[in-house]
């Protein structure tokens, strides 16, 4: 009997260790919060959190730059969190959507925004409290907000879902991965009757859904690039037309960000407009 109880106790201890290890591997997640045509939650593991947003069929949400047709860029208020020193939100590669109103940039179906978390005390859990603002759009665009909360232990491992989300974030040149497109050359032509910026890019063979986006700091307006040449072998040229409603004088000397995307990879590069 004593030997049986010893074996049983050992089994219970082993089971408890296995359950604890499984919890660390699995990461943690909050409850879903329902919104108009959408629902949101927090997931976390390995020092990375994710703001996960699922959209109903036919609905879309927006990137950090919503596009020329307008929209609501996501916002993230972490001020109610405790033991959180810093939260850096990353943006997966978006897509361009074109309709009668014009071009917008964002996501359909679902998206996870990865967030790098830094604790004030790395040995203690982070009590994450997020006011997540976002826009959803179908026939009309509606601002939405979800109040999300999650306690993140210091020992959780990153989940496959978060690793996949991180892989969809455009990489800078020094971290370029196989399949990521390359910004080879930027040619500014700022004088004359039709000022423009030409982006010469290179994509992996067979890449589809090729696109490029440009952002300027301080809320300065830069039109969306248009594809003007494609040799069918990966070399693609985009043009940014600066001839209408663009303050070129204000843009000169600023660091612009080019985000280049395809179904095989995505990258990001900055360049000064000279």
Assess the beta-strand content as a share of residues.
over 45%
Total domain modules = 2
From the 3D structure, determine the CATH topology of the largest domain. Answer: Immunoglobulin-like
Task: Tell me the number of strands.
Answer: 19
Low-pLDDT sequence parts: 1-25
Tally of helical segments:
3
CATH architecture of the largest domain: Sandwich
The dominant shape is globular
What is the assigned CATH homologous superfamily of the largest domain? Thiol:disulfide interchange protein DsbD, N-terminal domain
Order of helices and strands: HEEEEEEEEEEEEHEEEEEHEE
Q: What structural class do the secondary elements suggest?
A: mainly beta
What's the helix and strand layout?
Blueprint lengths: L1 H25 L1 E2 L3 E3 L2 E8 L2 E8 L4 E3 L12 E3 L6 E6 L5 E5 L2 E7 L1 E10 L6 E12 L3 E12 L7 H8 L14 E8 L6 E7 L8 E5 L10 E5 L4 E7 L6 H4 L3 E7 L4 E7 L2
Antiparallel strand pairs: 1-3, 2-3, 3-4, 4-10, 5-9, 6-11, 7-10, 8-9, 11-12, 13-14, 14-17, 15-18, 16-17, 18-19
List keywords for this structure.
six-stranded antiparallel sheet; 2 domains; disordered N terminus; Immunoglobulin-like; single chain; four-stranded antiparallel sheet; 274 residues; mainly beta; 14% helix
Could you characterize what this model shows?
- The protein is mainly beta.
- It has two domains: 27-167, Immunoglobulin-like, CATH 2.60.40; 173-272, Immunoglobulins (Immunoglobulin-like, Sandwich), CATH 2.60.40.10.
- Helix content is 14%, strand content 46%.
- It is built from three helices and 19 strands.
- Strands 1, 2, 3, 4, 7 and 10 form a six-stranded antiparallel sheet that branches. The protein has a four-stranded antiparallel sheet with strand order 13-14-17-16, with no helix packed on it.
- A hairpin with a 2-residue loop joins strand 3 and strand 4 (48-55).
- The chain is globular and about 60 Å long.
- Residues 1-25 have low confidence and may be disordered.
């Amino acid at each position: 009997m004593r030997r049986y109880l010893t074996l049983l106790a050992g089994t219970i201890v082993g089971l408890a260790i296995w359950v604890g290890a499984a919890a660390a591997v699995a990461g943690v997640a909050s409850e879903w919060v329902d919104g108009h045509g959408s629902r949101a939650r927090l997931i976390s593991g390995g020092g990375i959190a994710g703001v996960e947003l699922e959209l109903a069929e036919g609905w879309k949400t927006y990137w950090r730059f919503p596009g020329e047709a307008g929209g609501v860029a996501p916002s993230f208020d972490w001020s109610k969190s405790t033991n959180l020193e810093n939260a850096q939100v990353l943006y997966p590669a978006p897509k361009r959507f074109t309709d009668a109103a014009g071009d917008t940039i964002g996501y359909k179906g679902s998206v996870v925004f990865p967030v790098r978390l830094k604790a004030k005390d790395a040995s203690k859990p982070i009590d994450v409290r997020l006011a997540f603002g976002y826009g959803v759009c179908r026939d009309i665009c509606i601002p939405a907000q979800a109040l999300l909360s999650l306690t993140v232990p210091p020992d959780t491992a990153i989940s496959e879902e978060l690793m996949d989300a991180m892989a969809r974030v455009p990489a800078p040149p020094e971290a370029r991965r196989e399949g990521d497109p390359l910004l080879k050359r930027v040619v500014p032509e700022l004088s004359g009757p039709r000022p423009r910026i030409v982006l010469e890019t290179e994509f992996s063979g067979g890449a589809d859904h090729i696109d490029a986006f440009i952002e300027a700091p301080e809320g300065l307006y830069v039109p969306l690039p248009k594809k003007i040449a494609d040799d069918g072998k990966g070399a693609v040229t985009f043009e940014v037309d600066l001839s209408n409603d663009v303050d070129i004088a204000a843009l000169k000397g600023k660091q612009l960000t080019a985000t280049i995307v395809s179904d095989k990879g995505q990258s990001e590069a900055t360049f000064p407009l000279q």
